[in-house]
Each structure stands twice: as structure tokens, then as C-alpha cells.
Amino acid sequence: MDDDRTGASSAAPNHGSVGDDDDPAVEEESSSTFLDLTSYQLHDLHSVELPLSLTELDLTANRLSSLDPRIENLSNLKKLSLRQNLIDDSAIEPISRWHALSGLDELVLRDNKLMKIPDVSIFKRLLVFDVSFNEIATLNGLCNVSNTLKELFVSKNEVTKIEEIDHFVELQILELGSNRLRVMENFQSLTNLQELWLGRNRIKAVNLCGLKCIKKISLQSNRLTSMKGFEECVALEELYLSHNGISKMEGLSSLIHLRVLDVSSNKLTSVDDIQNLTQLEDLWLNDNQIESLEGISESVAGSREKLTTIYLENNPCVWSFAAC
């Protein structure tokens, strides 16, 4: 999952240029509170004015390898994006002492050169923290991130264990896709979690520790062989399980709010246990081993008013039907 969470101005932007005789002019889209310098390929911010009134600073897709020390003075800043730059561990380290920024709500360090979770303990009201697409091998350091956090993104790293998340009691979105995780664990305290994204890992079994409020789960491209483990997720609306080794549909009857079910690219031979899913809208069954269309009509009878998609391509039952 690749969410673009860069800031957006609430005021109409002014267009102008910043620069000096030695630097090419940089066209700037800004207001008194929002500065967007996305995709300017800047190596530094020497040619850029940083008004003290800024509440949002977006430096996405540049060539920055260090932090401009003037950022420390932006005491009104709420959102800072350094996405897609060249920031490494030593370059981000000064931010741990910039106490004037302690009111920051959103910090995006996605797609840089980080090897570890940076020290962001000074941000006492942080809501969004994104360190995806780096080279982080462990979640050590998350224990120092504010317990106010609502969205945490650590996808496309080298993480092997889910840890130091117990204090995130307000967390609503957790993204740990494309890591090296083998075990689902330590979710017990995440009672407000709404979305859990764990695609492209090495997980063999489902263990959700009773996440009864969760609405979206992705375990695509793992090593699952069973669907058991979702029974208590009674608020679940979207479930993505494609590209696993699941041979039987089961444990679904209690998921009466489910709208989207994706079990494509597995080893299913029949469609089962979905009779109670009256809210089902999308059912993805393609690339399985379902031999007959018989029984499918009965399985989806309760959801006919809602159902808009049943995808069965690349199953034996479709080949047989086409041959007739």
C-alpha cells in the first residue's frame, strides 16, 4: 500500500520565485502557512525562505541529505514531509533536540536511507509517523514515539518482529507490509485499530489477539494455509488474502459486515462459509482450483442485493463452462 500523505494548503497559494544570483530560481507554491517544494530536486534550502508562520512544509522528492537548521525555528509547524530524499540516520538526528517543533502532528520520512527508527520523543502530540521504504531492521525505538499516534507506516523495510507497539492505544492504521515478519503478535492493546496491512511478509498463521473493532486487514502474499483466526473480528469490512496457500474457506460466518473478500490466487476448490455475508459487494476468487459453479449461487444468495463483482477467471469451472 502506497499512501500519499503529503500536506495540502487550506488557503489559495501564491506563485513566486526564490533564489539568488548563484542559484537557479525556484518556482514556489506557498501561502503564509504552507510551503510546497515537491519535486524541485533541491540539494539544500539555501535559496528558500522559510517563514516562521509555516504550519506545513513539504519537501518531498528532492535531493536533501541534511536538515536545514532554520527548520528548528518553525515553532508553528504541524506537518513536515521529507519523503523521497537522501536523509540517513545521522542527518535526521538533530531533530531530536529541536524542542520548538514539539507540537508537530505529522512527520513523514518515507523513502530515505534510514537504518533505524529515529528519536522523535520530543513530539508529544504526534498523530502520523511514516518511515516506510527505508532500510530499518528493527522496531526498537518505537517505545519512545508518542502514545497519541493514530497512523504508523513502516512498510518496505527489513523488520523481523512486531514489538514496542503496546502503548499505541489510539492507533487506527498500522502498515507493516513488505517486511520479513513471520509472526503476528503484540496487538492486544491496539483496541482502536481500524486498518492492519501486513502484505508481502512470511506469516504462516493468523493471530489477531481479539481485534474486534478492526475494519480492514491485508495479509496478501504471505504463507497462510488456513483462514482460521478472523472469527472475532466482527466489525471487519474488507479482507485481502490473495497469493497464499489457502485450500478451504472457513471462519467467515461471523463476519456479517464484510463488504470485500479477496481470496484470489490460493488453492481453493469450492466456495464455502459465506452464506451469512449479506453485505458482500466484491468477491474475488480468480486463480484458484474451483472445479464447479454448482453451489456458488446458494453461497451468495443472501448478498445478491449488494453483490456487484464475482471474479472467477482462471478456475477449472470457468474453463469447463467456456468449453460448453
Essential attributes:
324 residues, mainly beta, 15-stranded mixed sheet, 3 helices, 15% strand, elongated, disordered N terminus
Write up what this structure looks like.
This protein is mainly β. It is about 5% helix and about 15% strand. It has three helices and 15 strands. A 15-stranded mixed beta sheet has the order 1-2-3-4-5-6-7-8-9-10-11-12-13-14-15, with no helix packed on it. The longest helix has 8 residues, at about 315-324. The chain is elongated and about 70 Å long. The model is unreliable at about 1-30 (pLDDT under 50).
Assembly status: single chain
Strand order of the largest sheet: 1-2-3-4-5-6-7-8-9-10-11-12-13-14-15
Question: Mean pLDDT, rounded to whole units?
Answer: 90
The structural class is mainly beta
- Rg measurement, Å: 23 Å
Approximately what portion of the residues adopt beta-strand conformation? Answer: 15-25%
Element-by-element helix/strand order? EEEEEHEEEEEEEEEHEH
Which word captures the global form?
A: elongated
Number of strands: 15
What is the straight-line distance between the termini?
Answer: 40 Å
Helix content: under 10%
Number of helices: 3
Provide the low-confidence segments as ranges: 1-29
**How is the main sheet built?**
15 strands, mixed
Region (Disordered): 1-30
Biased composition (Acidic residues): 19-30
Pfam families: LRR_4, LRR_8
Keywords: Leucine-rich repeat, Repeat
Structural topology:
Blueprint: E1 14-18, E2 26-30, E3 34-36, E4 56-58, E5 79-81, H1 89-92, E6 106-108, E7 128-130, E8 151-153, E9 173-175, E10 195-197, E11 216-218, E12 238-240, E13 260-262, E14 282-284, H2 296-299, E15 309-311, H3 316-323
Parallel strand pairs: 3-4, 4-5, 5-6, 6-7, 7-8, 8-9, 9-10, 10-11, 11-12, 12-13, 13-14, 14-15
Antiparallel strand pairs: 1-2, 2-3
